[in-house]
């Protein structure tokens, strides 16, 4: 007789931790031979609901490259993890981190992206970071490209719009795979690869002043080059370090139909297909048929080398990771729109929202985990999820962030429910365990961390690290392997 059983708790080897990106924490933008990156030419916004990454032009890049300060470019300073990494990793270890997701800045290792030999000082920094993580038995999860390619590749060949960038990227990936063989067991290729449909910040290609048709052409061509580079990186890693695993990374934008009206259901399905297209290519190894119509209707004609499709088919990723911040609502007749993490959609009247207007939907995380597991049957990894809020030091010198604890608790409960549903979930790295520079607006005042950093939007402050109330809470969550969420 078949006896039904199902897991009721997180697996014993579940990877609890946190996630950051080099361009948001490291600083040290102009020392030890590091080159300037695409992230470091994006000016801070004056309107926290405006994402300034789309404002980059050839002229603005010239101005940025001539500016030798970080006043208008906060990602150049980050929170100085470059000089505080020992202190920060010690705090992560105190919380009990099993894994720490971070990116290796391409331009710290290949400053211009075109060199044939790497910058040893850049590699030496990551040697030190990895040694510190090993000291505390924290597993590294390394992102290879997190919105921070060498700006020189934009200037010389318009970033990923050029096929030449594939070789430059894979020279970088081969270098770090060989250097960190046996030290890094989990890698990710492109952070939130689907946001390349929004342009420069992810593709490094300037397209602001082009028509929508021209923008779509250049963006999907750039993304095709990234798909090929990701497959080649997978091949490289499996040959260099067969015990290591490599995954894709998606900004998951689960969308609901606004009503049961079939036209709204179908509109929501189309939006979800455009989101999942990227994992379809990277996990299944082929372009899905439904994109043929989209490409044709938008006059997108991809140039492919003769063996591109064979490479994609032969080297799919080992696992799928994604960020999850919110869900959206889609209707055939769109009404009021809300913005989120590179997402736009209709307002959901059943959900609350953050200070930045991002709608909060813990149950949606369980929905998307089940849908992605059913679709791919590959291990899943939640590598970003968190609450950006205006945290303030209280009179007692602490940050009492019960709202963050509540947010994370509700999402972790839904993760556990998804595991009981049968989903294979590898781990959870919340974004970001220490306060950092906001990706979308370059603010410091949009804080996510368990650790408060004394720095304001103008870069003023002592950089002192202070534990928030959520620090002790997450410490308890990890120690109990997700059982104690009180």
UniProtKB/TrEMBL annotation:
Show the Gene3D superfamilies listed in the entry.
Glycosidases
Task: Give any single GO term for biological process.
Answer: carbohydrate catabolic process
Question: Which GO molecular function annotations are given, in alphabetical order?
Answer: beta-glucosidase activity
Task: Provide the coiled-coil residue spans.
Answer: none
Q: State the GO CC annotations.
A: cytosol
Q: Which Pfam families match?
A: Glyco_hydro_1
The record's InterPro entries line, in alphabetical order, gives:
GH, GH_1_N_CS, Glyco_hydro_1, Glyco_hydro_1_AS
Is the keyword Coiled coil in the record?
no
Active site (record annotation): 384
Name the domain of life: Bacteria
* UniProt KW keywords: Glycosidase, Hydrolase
Family the UniProt entry places it in: Belongs to the glycosyl hydrolase 1 family.
Name of the protein in question: 6-phospho-beta-glucosidase [Lactobacillus sp.]
Q: Which organism is it from?
A: Lactiplantibacillus mudanjiangensis
């Amino acid at each position: 007789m078949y006896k039904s059983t199902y897991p009721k708790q997180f697996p014993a080897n579940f990877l609890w931790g946190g996630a950051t990106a080099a361009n948001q924490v490291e600083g040290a933008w102009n020392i030890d031979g590091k080159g300037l990156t695409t992230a470091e030419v994006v000016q801070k916004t004056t309107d926290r609901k405006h994402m300034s990454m789309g404002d980059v032009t050839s002229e603005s890049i010239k101005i940025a490259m001539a500016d030798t300060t970080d006043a208008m470019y906060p990602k150049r300073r980050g929170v100085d993890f470059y000089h505080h990494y020992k202190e920060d990793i010690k705090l992560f270890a105190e919380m009990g981190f099993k894994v720490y997701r971070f990116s290796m800045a391409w331009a710290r290792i290949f400053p211009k992206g075109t060199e044939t030999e790497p910058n040893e000082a850049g590699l030496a920094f990551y040697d030190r970071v990895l040694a510190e993580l090993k000291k505390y038995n924290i597993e590294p999860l390394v992102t290879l490209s997190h919105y921070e390619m060498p700006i020189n590749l934009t200037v010389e060949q318009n970033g990923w719009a050029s096929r030449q960038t594939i070789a430059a990227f894979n020279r970088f990936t081969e270098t770090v795979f060989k250097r960190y063989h046996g030290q890094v067991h989990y890698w990710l290729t492109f952070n939130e690869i689907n946001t390349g449909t929004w342009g420069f910040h992810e593709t490094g290609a300037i397209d602001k002043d082009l028509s929508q048709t021209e923008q779509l052409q250049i963006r999907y061509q750039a993304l095709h080059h990234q798909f090929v580079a990701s497959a080649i990186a997978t091949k490289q890693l499996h040959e260099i370090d067969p015990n290591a695993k490599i995954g894709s990374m998606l900004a998951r934008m689960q969308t609901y139909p606004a009503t049961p009206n079939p036209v709204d259901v179908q509109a929501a399905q189309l939006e979800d297909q455009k989101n999942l297209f990227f994992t379809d290519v990277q996990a299944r190894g082929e372009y899905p048929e439904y994109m043929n119509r989209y490409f044709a209707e938008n006059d997108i004609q991809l140039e492919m080398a003769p063996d591109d499709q064979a490479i994609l088919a032969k080297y799919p990723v080992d696992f799928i990771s994604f960020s999850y911040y919110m869900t959206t609502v889609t209707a055939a007749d769109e009404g009021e729109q809300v913005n989120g993490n590179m997402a736009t959609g209709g307002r959901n009247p059943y959900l609350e929202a953050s200070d930045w207007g991002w709608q909060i939907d813990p149950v949606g995380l369980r929905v998307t985990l089940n849908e992605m597991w059913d679709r791919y049957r590959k291990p899943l990894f939640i590598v970003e999820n968190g609450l950006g809020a205006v945290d303030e030091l209280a009179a007692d010198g602490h940050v009492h962030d019960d709202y963050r604890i509540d947010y994370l608790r509700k999402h972790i409960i839904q993760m556990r429910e998804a595991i009981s549903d049968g989903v294979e979930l590898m781990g959870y790295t919340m974004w970001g365990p220490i306060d950092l520079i906001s990706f979308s607006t370059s603010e410091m005042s949009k804080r996510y961390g368990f650790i408060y950093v004394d720095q304001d939007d103008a870069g003023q402050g002592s950089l002192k690290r202070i534990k928030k109330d959520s620090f002790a809470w997450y410490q308890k969550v990890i120690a109990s392997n997700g059982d104690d969420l009180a």
